[in-house]
Write a structure and sequence with these properties.
about 625 residues; alpha+beta; FAD/NAD(P)-binding domain; 4-stranded antiparallel β-sheet; about 25% helix; globular
Length: about 625
């Protein structure tokens, strides 16, 4: 592993405007990076209003630490039900994997119609409406009900992080305006105080001022990406991979549990391409190490992208079909396709890199010392910068017959950073709660006893998930990842309330992928609509408990209370099960690992059908 220097914080300070805690800052968040420094300073001064004086704690009925996608959904649910909420976030933007990490929506194929909450559907619709209101779309794109601004083939909805950020602030705006919801950005949790089986307060470090501040709530929700409150509060939890002897799962480890066996993480970056121009970055410090590294997925070099733009072959090595949509590495997670917009509106497409080449596999982030975590985070940054430099200087370029794409330009403004890297790495696996109920693979594996016609049904369902078990680790049998080996062996899923309730602590709830799942089932519960649903259910549960003066485990273990809570969820637009007659295996949707079911060249994600033909997307 390369030697790296620790930084003073777990990730670099983003090159963006300062903390925004009230609606004024929220409404302008997506554009702050472009403001003059003096204007940003004045906004920062305004953000101090509404905070408790130094030495006193800030309090709300519901305290949510981590404005991840699940954290935001939790805040919306709680304030809709009339509760006061404090939402904190350690980066400069809210939205987690969809925004600060830069990951286009990973979804099942029915997300346009069902299998998601109403508020998640509102977010998706809001993204499309934002482009229709503010961008110069061509008429066909403007009229397309399933507009996919990036025309990426990984998702039906690929969009720029700043657009998603603006839409989230639109959703939060009424609650920020009333003061019922307060938002504190650039605040990192550093300590948790408990009293027996209740968490009392959380201490956060203000990354802007360097001061610490205490926050308290009747209910405290962990919306962090790594399950930080579980660790800081010494809440019973699990890190890494369980053993098959413990869980009975076919995909669990054969030997003993391994806390360091965690999924890879990725520091995403944004690129545009301007042929004929020179945008080569300085040679990264650890470039030689990563250039010569071997792939973690088998034999071969880590840097292996033979045809970035799909000039002669697509991402799968297949020859290009004339007139067809090209499923290239470039268009895989493209977030802006200039073919959707008026001619000349944009000089280039925009894409984000979540490839094998920049998957960091040399160490975990959970259950390790702060020093080790910093080393891995910095090494992952070096890896991603090295991928950029390699693409610019050494990658095969079939269009020219030479090497490199010097016109590739990192777009830091896409993420509000100086170097083009996302504000936070893409986290696939968190510390996980030891819950009253743990979701295990055999609950929804198709070949488990009793599952021939569907998965185990949860009477305490609080939502649905519809993803395959997607685990970025090499399979024991070899020949690909666990994802590929297990493909098509799992039913669609429900989210049980028991997985949100700690075995001991009474007032802590998970608001993301830190719920009661295993390392295996995390692979199906970690994606965007599921995380949103988990957060929304947690926020609603906290509000319901406050309203009824109940504890979460009382809600789950009383049929009458459970029925009342589930009715409230349904009223708010949460689906508790898949529609009758629509249960299917999780392989029944397009994915880049499943070409025997859907051909990437003909599967129409949104307006991708319009981008085929001789004119195609302008690379």
């Amino acid at each position: 592993m390369p030697r790296v220097s620790p930084s003073s914080a777990p990730w670099p300070t983003p090159h963006v405007g300062p903390t925004r805690r009230r609606f004024l800052q929220g409404a302008l968040a997506a554009g702050l990076a472009a403001l003059p420094g003096g204007t940003r300073s004045r906004l920062h001064a305004a953000a101090a209003t509404g905070a408790a004086p130094a030495g006193r704690e800030d309090r709300a009925e519901v305290l949510i630490i981590g404005a991840s996608l699940g954290g935001v959904a939790a805040a919306l649910a709680a304030v809709r039900m009339g509760r006061t909420v404090i939402l904190t976030e350690e980066t400069a933007w809210i939205g987690g994997q969809a925004i600060t990490q830069g990951i286009p929506l990973d979804e099942h194929p029915w997300a346009e119609d069902y299998g998601r909450t109403r508020s998640y559907a509102d977010f998706r619709a809001g993204v499309r409406a934002y482009y229709r209101r503010h961008y110069p779309l061509i008429p066909a794109a403007q009229a397309d009900p399933n507009l996919n601004p990036g025309a990426g083939w990984v998702s039906k909805l690929c969009f720029e992080p700043r657009v998603g950020l603006a839409v989230l602030y639109e959703m939060l705006a009424p609650h920020l305006g009333t003061g019922r919801l307060r938002l504190f950005l650039r605040h990192r949790p550093v300590a948790v105080a408990a009293d027996g089986d209740r968490l009392r307060r959380v201490t956060l470090h203000d990354e802007e001022s360097g001061a610490t501040r205490e926050f308290a709530g009747d209910y405290i929700l962990d919306g962090t990406e790594l399950g930080d409150l579980l660790e800081l509060g010494r809440v019973e939890s699990v890190v890494g991979a369980e053993s098959r002897a413990e869980t009975g799962e076919p995909l669990a480890l054969d030997g003993p549990a391994n806390p360091r066996e965690q999924m890879v993480f990725t520091h995403v970056f944004a690129l545009e391409h301007r042929p004929g121009e020179e945008h080569v970055i300085a040679r990264p410090r650890e470039y030689d190490f990563w250039r010569n590294a071997q792939s973690s997925r088998g034999a071969g070099p880590k840097f292996a992208i033979p045809d970035l733009f799909g000039v002669r072959q697509d991402h799968f090595g297949r020859p290009i079909k004339p007139g067809a949509y090209v499923a290239s590495t470039w268009s895989f997670r493209r977030i802006l396709c200039r073919g959707n917009f008026a001619a000349g509106a944009f000089p280039s497409d925009l894409t984000v890199a979540i490839w094998h080449a920049n998957e960091y596999h040399l160490g975990p982030l959970c259950g390790v010392s702060a020093e080790e975590r910093r080393r891995h985070l910095e090494a992952a940054r070096q890896l991603s910068l090295s991928v950029i430099h390699w693409l610019q200087t050494e990658a095969p370029n079939p269009a020219t017959g030479g090497r490199g794409y010097p016109g590739l330009r990192p777009r830091g403004d896409v993420f509000g950073t100086a170097d083009g890297l996302a504000q936070f790495p893409y986290i696939r696996e968190s510390r996980r709660l030891r819950a009253e109920f743990t979701v295990r693979e055999q609950h929804f594996r198709t070949d488990s006893p009793g599952n021939g016609h569907g998965p185990v049904k949860y009477a305490d369902s609080v939502g649905v998930s519809g993803y395959r078990v997607d685990i970025h680790r090499t399979a024991r049998e070899g020949g690909g990842s666990i994802t590929e080996v297990a493909h098509g062996k799992h039913w669609l899923q429900q989210i049980p309330l028991g997985a949100l309730i700690p075995v001991r602590v009474e007032n802590l709830l998970p608001a993301g992928k830190n719920l009661g799942v295993t390392a295996v089932t995390n692979g199906a519960f970690r994606v965007h609509p599921t995380e949103w649903n988990i957060g929304e259910a947690a926020g609603a549960l906290a509000a319901f408990c406050l309203q009824r003066k109940l504890r979460p485990r009382q809600v789950r273990n009383s049929p009458a209370h459970l029925a009342d809570f589930q009715r409230e969820l349904v009223r708010q637009g949460v689906e508790l099960d898949w529609p009758a007659g629509r249960m299917a295996t999780a392989r029944s949707y397009y994915s880049h690992h499943n070409l025997e079911l859907k051909d990437a060249d003909t599967f129409h994600f949104g307006e991708a059908w319009r981008l085929g033909g001789s004119k195609g997307p302008r690379e």
